[in-house]
Each structure stands twice: as structure tokens, then as C-alpha cells.
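task queued by scheduler; priority normal; single chain, no ligands, no partner chains; default sampling; output format set to C-alpha cells
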Amino acid sequence: MSDPAQTATEEHLPAPHPGLSAPEVAERVARGEVNDVPVRSSRSTTEIVRANVLTRFNAIIGVLFLIILVVGPIQDGLFGFVIVANTAIGIIQELRAKKTLDSLAVIGEAKPTVRRDGAPCAIPTGEIVLDDVIELGPGDKCVVDGRVLEADGLEIDESLLTGEADPVLKRTGDPVMSGSFVVAGGGAFTATKVGREAYAAQLAEEASRFTLVHSELRTGISRILKYVTWMMIPTAVGLIISQWIVQDHDWREAVRRMVAGIVPMVPEGLVLLTSVAFAIGVIRLGRKQCLVQELPAIEGLARVDVVCLDKTGTLTEGGMDVSELHLLDGAVGEKTDEAYVRQVLGALGEADPRPNASLQAIIDAYPAPARWRCTESLPFSSARKYSGAALSTPDGESGTWLLGAPDVLLAPEATALAQVEELNARGLRVLLLARAARELDDPRVTDGVRPTGLVVLEQRLRPDAGDTLRYFAEQNVSAKVISGDNAVSVGAVAAKLGLTGAKGPVDARRLPAGREEMGAALDRSAVFGRVTPQQKRDMVGALQARGHTVAMTGDGVNDVLALKDADIGVSMGSGSEATRAVAQIVLLNNSFATLPSVVAEGRRVIGNITRVATLFLTKTVYSVLLAILVVCWQVPYPFLPRHLTLLSTLTIGVPAFFLALAPNKERAKPHFVRRVMRYAIPAGIIAAAATFAAYLLARHHYAGPGALDAETSAATLTLFLISLWVLAIIARPYTWWRIGLVLAMGAGFLVVLVTPWLQHFFALKLVGTTMPWAAVAIAATAAGALELAWRWVDRRFPA
């Protein structure tokens, strides 16, 4: 026997379109009418290999390596093999990151609901075909172009395409553009353009693409490399003239020493190490079910000093429970008992095919009554903050009912608001059920409503939210709770979680409109209620205008505009498809507690790359200065390529790899280039001056055959000890493994000095005792100068 309520509904509503049949779908697939736009979360394997191999500095090092292969010996070409190994490591790590990202993207990909053979089914976006009937509900993104087939209060936001923030009410026959998303109501549309023909078809791809650009770290490193490139050419010309023509070396020897002067200027490992650090960060976060859609987001979140949190879905879990139902005095009508109100609430719940969390709690608490009919419905909208329906009872009585925010539906002087405030102060969410005197499509439908009852909802707090808020407080990151709910209720929830400033909640309707005034108000308070979607966007902009780096978290369609404008957008995996499309970071496990891991990963990357960049650029500075000093003094260049390869490996390459992946909780600071160069320049000057002084002293000390080899060995010892001291400074604060790392690098150099075949391989042999001890004394003096310079820089140029 059929359900009477269902029968009544079917009499008033046309049968839904059944969609395409299986043969019709197969026919379109055969014709290629499929939505085949590739939505990628990472670069292709070919792009990864090309990006790591075909670099400006690999080209320079490759040419120098080929030159060494011609003039020999092979040990002077070791730097070429190091580049190959480093590049291979970079490719492998990024391929691992790609695998992680691609697997997470598949997990997090939303599947539109398409009608096939009369039944709705969720399919991947790439399987939609021309003429498919696609269902829409709040938060759904329109993935292809189409035309509205069914509409029930359907409102679509096209701001991502047109820049116009106001949602557009869609009726049957109206066009739908890919990239727009539903903010209220529901319906269905027919796909008219799929694949690359769709308007803004690349939007989703661009929004979720894995990138390695637009990062202060990478921009700063690129700027440094540009300056190094400019310095290399004149230095190379000066060295070749100095070593070949002036010193009258054999041309092979002149070329070897010229290459030795040029190779250490290139901080080639720095670019690689940055990519590897980011890639490993992606893998680590991937294990925690965190999808990083844009790689620099790891860095960006580490720089954030204000995080804006949407209460629902972030501090609270998505579900709610009805805890109380209060009938209000003065309710109109003869049937005002609780049983009747429960039936009204049940009918309202049944009238909305896509209920939000609040309405779902009401549906769970109050079953739909038999033989009640809904003749018209108004879906919930975060902008107006209420929903409604025109209902008819089995005995013929009809009425228009609204369900929404009490402070929006009632006049400010209404007596019921006092009771609402009391409930809100306990952290409870309250909805007002009211009877309207006007039709639902009347713009002034809320005027003169007659309150009937208060539905009290209890929100489920996330168990980990309090710990996460405490973490942000400890890290000096200001948390701002921005919600569409009542300010007092939001403040009570935030207070339960221990948020500082939660006791002074602000009603956003009273915030000043001016950006500067709004920014000042936002800095003063921590909790804001009754915030509209446009206001969320304005609040993010106001905070940014005051110099803040802002992260925005959210899961609802009302968060999309703010997520898009924030420096870093963070979406919950269970959130709407629109929020996931515009967010840089998606928490697939829906756990707000994952955010500290992302912040920590970003700080690890930035802090450690800043550390190791100082090592690489100190080498660049002393290499340039040594080359200039050699040309000015008209002496042979003191090193062969093998010497500097050994020094770079022991004092930069190996330790930098470990330091770049170590834990680091230091807060990220801006001005990367300035912060690195303020240490690298004085350290490089001291290293170059001390090494060249030891070299000149050795030239006066040694004479006869083999003198140049002895001079080179003394200079190499001096430079190694100074570089090791720079490493010891960079490795602070010390832990057992950092001390072990520095000692291991020193032991490695000692092994070379005492092993005969390694002495021969690297052309290193200390002659006598006077000059080697003099080299140690010079290095010790330079180490003292480095300590003084480090302290002076901290005082004179604070970070």
C-alpha cells in the first residue's frame, strides 16, 4: 500500500527526469562526448624529470663537467657525479610526493550525482557525458556547462567566474556555468557542454594543481641564483686570463683551476634541497590524511599569524542533537500543543530534500507526519539565515512556517529573545519556529511573524579542538572564530574550548563597514557571530590590510569567498565540493587537530632551509672573493675541483641534507634573502680572507718542486676548519645527533688526511708541521671572528 504523503506529493510535482539510459551513455562515450578535462593534483612524471634535470645550473655544471672529462683527471670531475646523484634524489622524492598527492586526490574527489536509467548514482567527474542529468544541492559545484532542468529555490554563486558575490536565482531553462556552485536550494541540470568545451573548464585544474612556485623561499633562492649567474661570467674570464696567460700554466692546468673557481659559486644543491624538503613535507602530511593542493601552502601556513575558524564543522562536529523544545507564550492558533508543533517540525524537515546539519537533527528527532503536504518551500540560505515551507494538514488547514535564527526573524524588542540569550549563553544553538502572515515569495515574509516555539540544538564539540586552540595560542597565532550563528552561543562554545577572548563575543551586524575600522575591531576581539558570507570575505581582507597573514578554515558553501581570498584556505574533507576546490589544504580526515602538523611541517621546511641556505651561500661568497683575490694578486688558484668537492660534501652537502629534514619549531619569519645573507656575507668574507692569508703564508714557507701541492693542502685545511666551524654555528642549538654530525664530518676529513690512497686521490698531503699548525691557528682565529660576527649581526640586523 502506498504512503498517502508520498501520493499527495506526487500529485503536485512533475515526475523527475529519468536521465540517460546505459545505451545512450555508451553511444556518447563512443563519440567522445565525455567530460575528459584532466584534473590533476600533481605534475606529470615527464614534467618532474624535466624540472629537475633541465635547470640553468645543471647546464652550467654539465658543461664544466664535460670540460674536466676532456682535460682530466676524473677525480676533478667528482662534482658532476654529485649533481647526478642530487638530481636523482630530487626526482625520486618528488615522484613519491606525486604518488601521495594523486592517491589523496582520488580519495578527496567529489563525485557528482547523475541520473542514469531513472536512478541517481555518484560518478567521477570525468565520466559525465553530454546530456547527462546532474542533480544539485547546497555546496555542490557545477562541473560542466548546462541548462537548468528542475529548480527548487535554486541559488547559484558565480563569483569564481564573474567576481559578482551575490547568488543568482535560477529557474528552469536558465544556463549553468562550470565553476559556479550552489548556495541554496536544489534542482537538476542537463549537461550541454563537457570537457574542454565547457566554460571555465580549467578552473578546477588550476585550483588543485601541485605547484612549486609563488613561494618566498623559492623566489628568494631564484633571486640569489640570478645574482650568482651575473658574477660567474666575469669571474671565469678573469680566472682563465690569470691562470693561463699571466701564470703561464699549462692550458689543462689553467682550465682545471678555472673550473675549481667557478663550480663552488653555484649553490646548486640549495634548489634541490628546497624541492626535496617540500616533497617530503607533502609525504609526511599525506600520511596524516592531509591533501596539500598547492605545495607552497605548507610554507604559507607556517607564516600565518591569524587563523579564522568557522565554528560549525571546525570547532564542532557536523552533527547536532535536539535537546529541548520550548513552546512560546502567545502562540497563535488553537492547536499550540507540543504534539502539533512536533508535526510542523517533521513536515518542515520532509519539505527540504537536502537538509543542513540543523534540519537533519530536527528530522532525526521528529518524524514526518502522515498526509501533510508541502505546497511551496524556501530552502535555507546562509545569507538570510532561515528556511520555510507552506504546509497543508490532513484536515485542510494551511499555513506558512519559517524556521531560522530568532534574532533575524524577531524584532529586537521581542520578549522571546531573552530566553534565547539565556540558552545561547550555555553554548546551545537555538532555532525559532514561527508562523508567517505573508507568502514565502514575499520579500518581507519575515515581517509580523508569530513565534511558536524554540528548538534547542546541542552541538558536538570536537574532542581535539581545545588542544588545537591552545597550540595556536602557544605559537602566538591569533584565533578568530567567525560564525553565522548567534554571537553569544558561539562565544559560549569557544569559552568551553578555552579560547582567549571568548567572553566578549561581537555581533557582526554591528561591525563598522570601513576596512580600517573593521580591522581594528577584529584585532580587539576573538569571537564574531551572525557573520554573512560577504562579511567573512571582508573580514579576511581587513585583517590582511593590517599586515596579517590570514588562514581561513571552513567546510560550508558560505565559507568559499573567504577561503578564496585568504592567504591560506583550509577545507574539511567532508565539506562542500566548492570549498575543497578553492582551498589550498584539504583535511581529508575532517580533523581540525591536523592543522598543527601542517604548521609544524611548514616551520620545519622554512627554518631548516634558512639554516642550510646560509651554508650554501657562505660557500658562494668565499668562492667569489677567493677568485677576485687570486686575480688581483696574480697567483695560481689554490684549489683543484676535487678539493672543493670534498669540502662541499663534508661541510655542506651531507650535513645540509640531515639539517633540512630535522625537527624545527621556530616561527617562520619574512625577508628570507636578507636573513640568509646577513650571516652568509660576513662568514664568507672571513673564510675567504683567512684562507687566502694561509695560502700566501704557505707560498712564502714552501719552495721547490711540489710546493703548489703543499700550499694547496695548507689552504684546504684552513678552509675546511673554517667551514666546519660555520657548520657548528648553523647546527645550534645542539642535540646529540647535531654534535655527532659535526664530529662525523671532521672525522671524515681526518680519514682522508691519514689514508694514503685517499691522499693521492684528492691530492692532499700536509708537508712538515709548521705550516699545518699555522693553518690551524689561522682557522682558530677565523672561528673567533665568526663568533663575534654572528653576535654583531644579531644585534645590528635583527631578524
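post-processing summary
- The first strand starts at residue 113 and ends at 116.
- The chain has 28 helices and 21 strands.
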